[in-house]
């Protein structure tokens, strides 16, 4: 499968805008990747009144929950499905995230789904 280069900065801004349509968090925590330290993203976060938090450099354990999510995505979906096209990957991952958030019970949430706990 061939992947197209993407603009990580714009992708993060687009994701933030999409997320803000569903509510506003108090804090935005990321690693120190360049897409998260951009003036544009940080400016938009400040404009929205969202506190910015960044993990320490080289500190994967600071974002253990996100690391666990990506492990689940890879081992429960990407490696199993072996997508042939970007369109297949986008559709398959959208389906997986819907399953992950709305159907899959999470031990850390007392076997509830994220939608049940955080979805309102």
Summarize the structure in words:
With 120 residues, the protein is mainly alpha-helical. The protein folds into 2 domains: 58 residues, Nucleotidyltransferase, domain 5; 61 residues, no CATH class. Helices cover 52% and strands 7% of the residues. The model has no long low-confidence stretch (mean pLDDT 85).
Tally of individual helices:
5
Largest sheet: 2 strands, parallel
Order of helices and strands: HEHEHHH
Q: Please report the total strand number as a whole number.
A: 2
Oligomer: single chain
C-alpha geometry: globular
Q: What strand order characterises the main sheet?
A: 1-2
Global structural class: mainly alpha
Q: Runs with pLDDT <50, length 5+?
A: none
Rg estimate, integer Å: 16 Å
Helix content: 40-55%
What is the first-to-last residue Cα distance? Answer: 38 Å
Strand portion: 5-15%
Give the arrangement of secondary structure elements.
Elements: H1 8-20, E1 27-30, H2 39-47, E2 51-54, H3 64-81, H4 86-102, H5 114-118
Parallel strand pairs: 1-2
Brief sketch in words of this structure:
With 120 residues, this protein is mainly alpha-helical. Helices cover 52% and strands 7% of the residues.
């Amino acid at each position: 499968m061939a992947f197209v280069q993407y603009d990580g900065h714009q992708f993060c801004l687009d994701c933030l805008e999409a997320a803000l349509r569903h509510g506003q968090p108090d804090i935005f925590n990321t690693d120190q990747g360049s897409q998260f330290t951009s003036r544009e993203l940080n400016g938009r976060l400040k404009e929205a009144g969202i506190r910015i938090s960044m993990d320490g450099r080289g500190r994967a354990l600071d974002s253990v929950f996100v690391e666990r999510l990506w492990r689940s995505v890879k081992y429960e979906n990407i490696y199993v499905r072996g997508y042939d096209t970007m369109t297949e990957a986008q559709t398959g991952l959208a389906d997986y995230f819907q399953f992950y958030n709305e159907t899959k019970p999470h031990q850390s949430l007392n076997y509830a789904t994220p939608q049940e706990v955080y979805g309102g």
